[in-house]
Each structure stands twice: as structure tokens, then as C-alpha cells.
Write a structure and sequence with these properties.
The complex is a heterodimer.
Chain A: E1 2-7, H1 11-21, E2 27-33, H2 36-45, E3 50-54, H3 62-68, E4 76-81, H4 87-91, E5 95-100, H5 105-125, E6 141-146, E7 149-154, E8 160-164, E9 167-172, E10 175-179, H6 183-189, E11 195-199, E12 202-205, E13 209-214, E14 220-224, E15 229-232, H7 234-247
Parallel strand pairs in A: 1-2, 1-3, 3-4, 4-5
Antiparallel strand pairs in A: 6-7, 8-9, 8-12, 9-10, 11-12, 13-14, 14-15
Helix pairs in contact in A: 2-3
Chain B: H1 5-8, H2 17-34, H3 43-70, H4 75-104, H5 108-111, H6 119-123, H7 126-173, H8 177-192, H9 196-215, E1 221-223, H10 224-242, E2 246-252, E3 260-262, H11 266-278, E4 285-294, E5 297-305, H12 315-335, E6 341-347, E7 350-358
Parallel strand pairs in B: 2-4
Antiparallel strand pairs in B: 1-3, 4-5, 5-7, 6-7
Helix pairs in contact in B: 2-3, 2-7, 3-4, 3-7, 4-7, 8-9, 9-10, 10-11, 11-12
The chains are: A alpha/beta, B alpha+beta.
């Protein structure tokens, strides 16, 4: 069980997070706080594993609360914000991820997955759980159903993968194929040395990247060899850069 | 004496040292004029006195002239006051000079004995000292006038830049509302149909788009990559609304992502293509966006399928398309006079917009 706290000064925002958390049965909400001061006291008295922390709160901000906690008491944090401009400080404070409001469901699940992974690693350190088996082989082909037929698309022929609601869209040359899996699921199955998640709505094949142009808000835009521009969000940019340099 | 902005409002005075510096050559002239007579009797003493007096008088004179100027007094009055003041200063200098010469020849006591003061001697040789001080005042007036002119020009330029700023901002905000309300309406419909996850997804996309618009507010020009990212954020909202009815293809050429373009240039054109081309169609429609370099120009083409005759939007909708295009055309004309173009029209069954503007990869200094 992962023990979770939610801190936000707006009751509706707290309820929004709680309703999303309700979908996961390995999570237990152990605290709910409506301002920085009570959150600080509560987190000190009853440290959770993970906290969903609103950044902009009257008085003490979410970052102030995290900074006021000692490193031993400081839980992993997923920050909630309307407009960010603090990322550097946030990541020094055990922040795993940050979610922009209004919260996107897929991003929420992903941030939670990151936190879970970190908590699992922490547990591995104390040798309480056996190491999880990593898939020995990466996904080499996709099966795509068109009517009654099933097509098999080689992963090597896919330039990039976009999202369409809960499905993934494979881009192969001029054609597109819909796969009934989420981008998040695909990202975990594909070879990370060849395919990298760059945005909530896209995965690119590394050897297709022709150009990278950074943006002022720390996001970036990629241009693929076929001329397609693909947005890169700052959450993924470090992983993309290291994968690009490793491949080169 | 630094100039404070409040004081600069009516009269922009040059720094105090500037006219003094400009007046120095006059002092040099005094010396040069004295060259031939140096060494002749008391002439050296007299000229040294004149020069020191000039340097000393210049400071209160500068202060007085600045004060008069700042009070906004009429020019002829300032001239009159200054002529009188400089005359008095010259007279005082001359008086001092005569007294010193008398003292040098040991006849100072005699000088002040009643009836012996040679008034003629006092006024002779006065014009030299006076003229130099008058010339100094003229130099000061020119320097002040020039400073004020420069200030006026700067203010004029600033006003023009501000006007352009305001105009561009107004044009840009004119673009936002209908899209915002349409999206809210779509979200409202999704909520009414209890399609919660889709409504939430749309709100998240809308949030992304609004953040992109707000981030772009800093300058009129953004890189093409920023504009593409913003247009993509917008398209994601539309994709959520239209689903597979929107067939989108982008083609961005080599080496243009860093080009500078006006912010929100692409998005309104793409919005037009969707509102008037794709959205009214019942069948899926294609939207092709091609951006490439063409010599020194950036070439942007946005082509979209059109609704079938029966699906055509009402006439009022066409008028709104024109507003969007005029808006973009207006902004291009202001930012790149005679160097940008926008053509739009129906060709081979598709609506085609072609946009050309100068390709620049570094920001242009404001003109």
C-alpha cells in the first residue's frame, strides 16, 4: 500500500485528485490538507510515501512546505500547478513530476507510475521485494486489426507514434495505423534504445530525428526526416537528449 | 546634475557639464587673442584675470540660464536677462582688472580718491570680456536646444512603438474568444452526455493551448518552432472535437524551425481552415501544412478540403474568414512593409492559403 496525502487550498481541486486516486487500489489516502501550515504539521506527524502538492497556495506555498521538511521526512512529491516557472527548485525537493491544471488523466497515471517505480527502487534497497522481471525482448512488431484482417507492422518501419484518445497511431510513411493500446503501454514495451517518449501524445524513433529546436518555455520541437514537427515536453527532454547522444 | 524623468517632461536639459565643456574653446580663444600682447606691461596680468574670471563666471551663468529655461520663460526675455547679467559680470571683471593694475603700479589709494576715477578707462576694453560671455550663452542655448530636440525625437519614436504595440496586441486578442467559447461549449456538451474522460481530456488540451498563448506574449516575434508548438496545442483541441474527420499532415523543411515569425501567425489560418473547411464536412477532410525556405523568404502553405455544396456554411461565416485573413495581412504589412504577402483562394477544389515573409533567424532591431 502506498500512503498518499493531498494538499491543495481549493476543495474542488482536492476532490479532483481524490477521484483520480480512487481508481487505483494500491493507494491509501492518509491525509488531506487545505493550506501550507497545516500540511507541514500533518506531514511531520504522519509522513506519507507520496504527496500531491499544490504549488500556489496563499501563505506558505507547496514548495515552502517541502523545503521546511527535513530530507528524512520529505515524501516523494507530485506537484500540481497552473503555470510553472519553478522546475529547477522543485526537483531538488524530491519532486517526481509535476502536473499542469487542468490535470490530464494520462499524465496523472504516468506521474503515479514514476512515483511507484521510485518507491519500488527504494524498497529494493531495503531488500523487501524481489526484483521485478524485466521483459527480455522488446516489441518488434505491432498487430493492427482492419476489419477482419490483421496486419503486422514492423517496429523498424514506424517513424513515430501519436495518440488518438486512448489509442496509439503508428505513422509509417504516408500511412497511419491505429493500435488499440495506450501510448504509455507501448512506451514500456518498445526498445528504449530506438524509441523514446517525447510528449504526452508522441513517441519517436530516434533515427528519424533530423532537428531539435528548443523553445523559450523549456519545451522543444523536433523535426523528423519526413518533415513532421513533433512537440517535446520538458518532462521528457533530458531522456531524449541522452538517448540521442548515446545513439550518435 | 542628472536629469530626473519628472523634470524631463517639459524641458529636457542637457547635463550641466556639457555646455561648460562646449564653452571651453571660448576660453582658449581668449588666450589666443592675448598672444600678441603677452609680456607687454600689465597685459599678461589682465588677460590671466579675464580668463580666470571667464571660467568662474561660466558656472553661475550656466545655472542661471538653465533656471530661466526650465521656468519656460520667453526666449527674448531670457536673452535680455542674460545680456544684462553678462554685462554686469564683464563690468565687475573690468573693475577688478583696473583695480589690480592700479595696485600693481602702487596707485591704488589714488584710484579711490574722489574725482580721480577714470570712468572712460573703466568702460574701455569691456566689450572683450562681455562678448566672450555672450558667446558662451549662445553656445549654451544651442546645446540645450539640441538636447531638447533629441529628447523630442526619442519620445516620438517611443510613442510610435507603443502605438504599434497596442495595435498588434489588439489584433491578436481579437483572435481568441470564439475559439475559447466553442471549446467551452464542446466541453459543456461532453459533460451533459456524461462523457467525463473526454471532457477532462479536452480541458487539459485547452489548458495547454492557453499556456502556449500566454507564454508567447513576451514578444511579437517567436521562432517558427514556438508557433508550430502553439498551433499543435490548438490542433489537439480540434482533434479531440473532430476525431478522425481531421486528416492532418505537416511538412516542415530543413533549417526553418529557428526562423522568426510573428506570434499567432499560423494558428488563426489553421483555425480558419478547420472552422470553414473541415468542421462543416461530413466526410473526413485533409489539412496540409507545408513550410519551407524559398531563397530569402519563408514560404508557408495551408491547404484544406472544402465542404460539399450542401454543407457550405452560411454567408456570415465567409465574412468572418475574411476578418481572420485581413488580420494576418494587416500584421504582416505592419511588421514587414512590402516584404511579405498573403494570397488565399479556391484552387482545384481546395482552399489554399500561401504566405510569404522574410526568412530571418535573428531578431530584427525595432525600427
Amino acid at each position: 500500500m502506498i500512503r498518499v496525502c493531498v494538499v491543495d487550498d481549493e476543495p474542488l481541486a482536492r476532490r479532483g485528485v481524490l477521484s483520480l486516486l480512487a481508481a487505483f487500489d494500491d493507494l491509501q489516502v492518509v491525509g488531506e490538507y487545505e493550506d501550507g501550515t497545516t500540511a507541514l504539521a500533518g506531514l511531520q506527524a504522519q509522513p506519507p510515501d507520496l504527496v500531491f502538492m499544490d504549488v500556489q497556495m496563499p501563505g506558505m506555498t507547496g514548495l515552502d512546505v517541502l523545503a521546511a521538511l527535513s530530507p528524512q521526512q520529505r515524501p516523494l512529491a507530485i506537484l500540481l500547478t497552473a503555470h510553472d516557472s519553478f522546475a529547477v527548485r522543485a526537483f531538488a525537493l524530491n519532486a517526481v513530476d509535476y502536473l499542469l491544471k487542468p490535470v490530464d488523466d494520462a499524465r496523472f497515471a504516468e506521474a503515479l507510475a514514476r512515483a511507484r517505480q521510485l518507491l519500488r527502487l527504494r524498497d529494493l534497497d531495503t531488500a523487501r521485494t524481489p526484483p521485478t522481471a524485466t521483459p527480455a525482448r522488446h516489441l518488434e512488431k505491432f498487430s493492427v486489426r482492419i476489419g477482419h484482417r490483421t496486419l503486422f507492422i514492423r517496429a523498424a518501419s514506424v517513424a513515430w507514434i501519436g495518440a488518438d484518445g486512448d489509442y496509439a497511431v503508428l505513422h509509417v510513411g504516408e500511412r497511419t495505423y491505429i493500435v488499440r493500446e495506450s501510448l504509455h503501454q507501448l512506451a514500456a514495451q518498445l526498445d528504449p534504445a530506438r524509441f523514446v517518449r517525447v510528449h504526452r501524445s508522441s513517441i519517436v524513433r530516434l533515427d528519424q530525428v533530423a532537428e531539435l529546436q528548443p523553445l523559450t518555455n523549456r519545451d522543444a520541437v523536433l523535426r523528423l526526416h519526413d518533415g513532421t514537427p513533433v512537440r517535446v515536453s520538458r518532462t521528457y527532454i533530458d531522456a531524449l537528449l541522452s538517448a540521442l547522444h548515446a545513439g550518435g | 546634475m542628472p536629469m530626473t524623468p519628472a523634470r524631463a517632461g517639459r524641458h529636457a536639459l542637457p547635463p550641466f557639464w556639457l555646455p561648460v565643456l562646449a564653452g571651453l574653446p571660448l576660453g582658449v580663444c581668449l588666450l589666443v587673442m592675448a598672444m600678441p600682447i603677452l609680456g607687454h606691461g600689465n597685459a599678461t596680468l589682465a588677460r590671466t584675470l579675464y580668463l580666470s574670471a571667464f571660467v568662474l563666471w561660466v558656472l553661475p551663468l550656466t545655472a542661471l540660464q538653465r533656471w530661466l529655461w526650465r521656468r519656460g520663460m520667453a526666449v527674448w526675455r531670457i536673452a535680455l536677462v542674460l545680456l544684462l547679467t553678462t554685462y554686469a559680470m564683464a563690468l565687475a571683471t573690468r573693475l577688478l582688472s583696473v583695480a589690480l593694475q592700479a595696485a600693481a603700479s602702487g596707485s591704488l589709494a589714488r584710484l579711490f580718491a574722489p574725482g580721480t576715477l577714470d570712468v572712460g578707462l573703466l568702460f574701455r576694453g569691456l566689450e572683450g570680456a562681455w562678448l566672450v560671455l555672450v558667446a558662451y550663452c549662445a553656445v549654451h542655448a544651442v546645446v540645450t536646444y539640441y538636447a531638447e530636440l533629441r529628447h523630442e525625437q526619442a519620445r516620438h519614436l517611443e510613442a510610435r512603438a507603443l502605438a504599434r504595440d497596442a495595435e498588434l496586441r489588439a489584433l491578436r486578442y481579437q483572435l481568441q474568444p470564439h475559439f475559447l467559447f466553442n471549446t467551452l461549449n464542446a466541453v459543456s456538451a461532453l459533460v451533459a452526455e456524461e462523457r467525463g474522460p473526454e471532457a477532462r481530456q479536452m480541458l487539459a488540451r485547452l489548458g495547454d493551448f492557453l499556456r502556449a498563448v500566454l507564454d508567447a506574449r513576451a514578444g511579437h516575434e517567436v521562432t517558427l518552432a514556438e508557433e508550430i508548438a502553439m498551433t499543435e496545442a490548438y490542433l489537439e483541441v480540434e482533434k479531440a472535437r473532430l476525431g478522425r474527420r481531421l486528416l492532418l499532415s505537416w511538412h516542415v523543411g530543413d533549417g526553418v524551425l529557428g526562423a522568426h515569425v510573428p506570434g499567432l501567425l499560423l494558428q488563426p489560418l489553421v483555425e480558419n481552415a478547420i472552422r470553414h473547411g473541415i468542421a462543416p464536412r461530413s466526410a473526413p477532410g485533409r489539412l496540409d501544412i507545408r513550410i519551407a525556405r524559398d531563397g530569402t523568404q519563408l514560404d508557408i502553405r495551408i491547404d484544406n478540403d472544402l465542404p460539399a455544396p450542401g454543407e457550405a456554411p452560411p454567408q456570415s461565416e465567409d465574412a468572418r474568414t475574411a476578418v481572420g485573413l485581413d488580420n494576418v495581412r494587416g500584421r504582416l504589412a505592419r511588421l514587414y512593409p512590402d516584404r511579405a504577402g498573403l494570397q488565399a483562394g479556391i484552387d482545384a477544389g481546395r482552399y489554399r492559403v500561401r504566405l510569404t515573409l522574410p526568412l530571418r533567424t535573428a531578431p530584427e532591431p525595432a525600427t
